[in-house]
Design a protein that fits this description.
five-stranded mixed β-sheet, 463 residues, twelve-stranded antiparallel β-sheet, elongated
Length: 463
């Protein structure tokens, strides 16, 4: 009779624990990145009244007689199912789709979270604004003029230098892909001004010097009289100031050449060859690249007192190709130069985060720069993580060591910027569990009441 009392007590206590977990789940129904808990029960040790007996020649076997002594909590699991994603439009909000955790640092202590509600502090560091923990990842390093992220390196704080300068870059390469109309008339000696205009195809393109000053690269094309598939190209930087800029163009060098070249096409209208004014002829195959130089007005002279000159390459495309190459077809002359790699100084105005966690800075001069990449951590047993509060987890003896990597690699999920992962608590499920828990609690209380009534009956036997 006393056994049922204690069984009821264990039932009350452990159903209260289950109710505590359900209450915590419901309290965190709107907590970003929260993962619900789940309580599993198991029975306690049983008292054996008689043991089992094996069959004999006379009778069969006898099962053991055991009385259970109650129940206990088997486990309180954290259920890491995917929560719904909610769009916020905030650039620093990041959600994980799939497995993985963001890595946060408080000094040397590492924490892990599914909540990506981040922001930038006054120093530009990407942090969790609720507690100041710093988001970990890899900062980009410059290599051969490119920003490269090495995810094999140790993680570090991510710094987004909003308002930082992107220095001006002088134009080094210009690419042409225009078509020259095969039916353009030749400009004969004594031609009128109208005929000159009709027989000339002008192209203009903005380029930049090392100060970030803007210049105009003008290339005019005119058919060579008496040569059906040849054009003369005249190159000028800042045509209105041609005497000062002294533009020169040649194959492999600008020494001893003037500012023009002859471009030849084959009978299919594809690029064939180029010759400069010094008699140099282009390579028979591959790309044709002309070197162009001009005086940079306002720059310091060299040690010999000569004006500072800037050199860049003009790429006419690939011999025999029609793709991204200057051509001659019997259709309207089209398109100007389509690419140049110079720019003026700019400031970091904005940034964006892609599905790989790569942070790209957007500068006011139109350039984009890779700033860094957000790291993700995964565990052999994420259910073994210990909750550290503030939506964070810590490694435990049973979680395994954090495996740090980029998204989409080694089982890590992908990222979505401008969104947050919501709690995975299902209120319908929780309220159903609450009813079941309440009934279980009431039933165990009734067990105690009934056992007490039986005891009272025994005590009344003496009366």
């Amino acid at each position: 009779m006393m056994r049922s009392l204690y069984s009821g007590v264990s039932g009350l206590q452990n159903h209260q624990t289950r109710m505590d977990v359900i209450g915590n789940n419901i309290a965190n129904v709107n907590t970003t990145g929260f993962k619900r808990g789940r309580v599993n029960f198991q029975d306690m040790i049983s008292q054996q009244l008689s043991g089992a007996a094996k069959p004999t020649e006379e009778v069969g076997g006898v099962n053991p007689k055991e009385v259970g002594l109650g129940m206990t909590v088997a486990a309180i699991d954290t259920v890491f199912t995917q929560g719904n994603l909610q769009s916020t439009g905030v650039a620093t909000d990041v959600a994980i789709t799939g497995n993985g955790f963001f890595v946060l640092k408080d000094g040397e202590q590492s924490y892990y979270t599914r909540s990506g509600a981040f922001s930038v502090d006054r120093d530009g560091t990407l942090v969790n604004p609720a507690n100041g923990m710093r988001v970990q990842g890899w900062m980009a390093q410059e290599a051969n003029g490119q920003q490269v992220v090495s995810t094999a390196a140790s993680t570090t704080d991510l710094v987004i230098p909003v308002g930082s300068k992107d220095p001006a870059k002088a134009t080094q390469n210009v690419k042409f892909a225009c078509n020259l109309n095969k039916n353009t008339p030749e400009i004969l000696e004594g031609a009128s001004e109208d005929d000159v205009i009709k027989g000339t195809w002008n192209t203009e393109f903005k380029i930049y010097d090392s100060f970030g000053n803007e210049h105009m690269l003008a290339v005019t094309f005119r058919r060579v009289v008496g040569s059906p598939n040849q054009w003369r190209a005249d190159v000028q930087v800042d045509p209105e100031n041609a005497d000062a800029t002294q533009t020169r163009v040649g194959l492999g060098t600008t020494d001893g050449v003037e500012n023009s070249f002859i471009v030849s096409f084959d009978n299919n209208g594809t690029l064939q060859s180029v010759s400069d004014t010094a008699g140099n002829v282009s390579n028979p195959t591959g790309e044709i690249v002309l070197q162009t130089s001009f005086n940079v007005v306002g720059a310091n002279a060299d040690q010999d007192g000569n004006p500072s000159r800037q050199t860049m390459n003009i790429n006419l495309g690939t011999i025999g190709s029609m793709r991204d190459t200057i051509t001659q077809s019997a259709s309207k002359s089209s398109t100007k130069p389509y690419y140049q790699d110079g720019y003026t100084m700019g400031y970091l105005d904005n940034f964006k985060i892609d599905a790989s966690g790569v942070i790209t800075g957007v500068y006011s001069n139109g350039t984009n720069r890779t700033i860094g990449q957000i790291a993700l951590a995964s565990f052999a047993n994420q259910g073994g993580l210990e909750k550290a509060g503030e939506n964070t987890y810590m490694e435990s003896n049973n979680s395994g060591i954090a495996k740090i990597g980029e998204s989409g690699v080694s089982g890590n999920g992908s990222l979505m910027a401008g969104a947050l992962e919501m709690s995975n608590v299902d209120l319908t499920e929780q309220f159903t569990d609450m009813i079941v828990t309440q009934r279980g609690f009431q039933s165990n209380a009734k067990t105690i009441q009934t056992a007490d009534t039986l005891l009272e009956t025994v005590l009344s036997l003496k009366r």
